[in-house]
Design a protein that fits this description.
By secondary structure, the chain is an alpha/beta fold. The chain contains 14 helices and 14 strands. It has 2 domains: 163 residues, Glycogen Phosphorylase B (Rossmann fold, 3-Layer(aba) Sandwich); 151 residues, 3-Layer(aba) Sandwich (Rossmann fold), CATH 3.40.50.
């Protein structure tokens, strides 16, 4: 009989779908508990009831419980997994292991029921998988530079907590590019539904960089509930577009020369890695997993003072060799097959 796994998540993002595919590929039947992040009291209560009944039904028959991110949605499934003596895992991606006081951002920013439950989850769970090692003990640079507290170990008193680095993986067959295509411009992606995203994702720096390179096109992808231009006086060479499909993002990456990741906090940025696979030369800040992804294939910056160096870099003679170098680094470090093998080893 086929072994089974239960996965619980609040939003069905691409990385959740990817992990479901991985679990199925290694021979598991996957039960899914999808708990939307509803804040209305009745919806919140309904989600907890649904989690309870589905957990009872699924976990009795499952080998393992995997929760993408730590939050309310993980508590009841983890509790039920303990009752049934099943292995439980939380996958930490960033938000659930940071506190950014300036932006009032992070799962543990406010002391209350939510952070209390999240700390209980870390105490109860058998393992934590972090997408980058900086999410285990924290990013020193982000602490020194931005006073950002980070790392799972900063938010749990459980000294013997088992934490493994299992990086997100990327499909180089899908994220590819044609070397004959003329790549131009600078791109950044940020799901813009909150004005805090400007500072968190470095959109203000992106805007300043555009002012220093007026003859080069800049694009912001991901405008959603509110308009970026309401909060930033955008340079005339910046174009803003809404949330794109996976295929649309691929086409954008393939036609763009540089990808900008100016975040003050991250785990291992999916957009950065996907863009590099599509031949974008990376420009990134020195926090969390960004330097590991970029390595020596692009340029890393510290502050606004480094923008002049970035301008020189963008204006330098870069071509096919640099595009291939960026792509090859992601294939070497974060190929999809590596995540498959690590997950398989951790489950069986």
């Amino acid at each position: 009989m086929k072994k089974k796994a239960t996965i619980v998540y609040s939003v069905e993002r691409s990385f959740v779908k990817s992990d479901i595919s991985i679990l199925e590929a290694i021979g598991l039947k996957v039960f899914k508990i999808h708990s939307k992040p509803d804040k209305k009291p009745l919806d919140f209560l309904f989600n907890r009831i649904k989690e309870f009944y589905k957990s009872i039904f699924y976990l009795f028959r499952s080998k393992i419980l995997i929760s993408w991110f730590n939050d309310y949605h993980a508590f009841i499934p983890i509790l039920v997994s303990k009752v049934f003596l099943k292995k439980s895992v939380i996958i930490v991606g960033g938000y659930d292991a940071i506190v950014d006081k300036k932006n009032r951002h992070g799962l543990f920013f406010k002391r209350g029921l939510r952070s209390f439950v999240a700390k209980l989850n870390y105490k109860m769970v058998n393992e934590v998988w972090v997408v980058h090692k900086s999410l285990e003990s924290g990013c020193d640079f982000a602490k020194q530079k931005f006073n950002i507290i980070s790392g799972v170990r900063s938010f749990t008193s459980k000294k013997n907590i088992s934490i493994k680095e299992i990086n997100t993986g990327y499909d180089a067959r899908f994220w590819n590019y044609d070397e004959s295509v003329q790549k131009t411009g600078v791109l950044t992606a940020a799901f813009f539904s909150d004005k805090r995203v400007i500072n968190i994702k470095g959109l203000d720096l992106f805007n300043k960089l555009a002012s220093l390179l007026p003859n080069i096109s800049f694009t912001i992808v991901g405008e959603s509930d509110i308009s970026v231009s309401e909060f930033l006086n955008l340079q005339p060479n910046i174009k803003v577009i809404g949330v794109q499909t996976k295929s649309q993002m691929k086409e954008l990456y393939q036609n763009t020369k540089f990808y900008f990741q100016g975040s003050r906090l991250e785990g291992l940025p999916n957009s950065l890695c996907e863009a590099m696979l599509c031949g974008c030369v990376p420009i990134g800040s020195k926090v969390f997993g960004i330097p590991d992804a970029i390595g020596n294939t692009g340029i890393l910056f510290d502050t606004e003072k480094d923008l002049e160096q970035i301008v020189e870099f963008v204006n330098s003679d870069l071509g096919v060799y640099n595009f291939s170098k960026a792509r090859n680094r992601i294939i070497k470090k974060y190929d999809f097959s590596k995540r498959v093998e690590k997950i398989k080893k951790s489950i069986f």
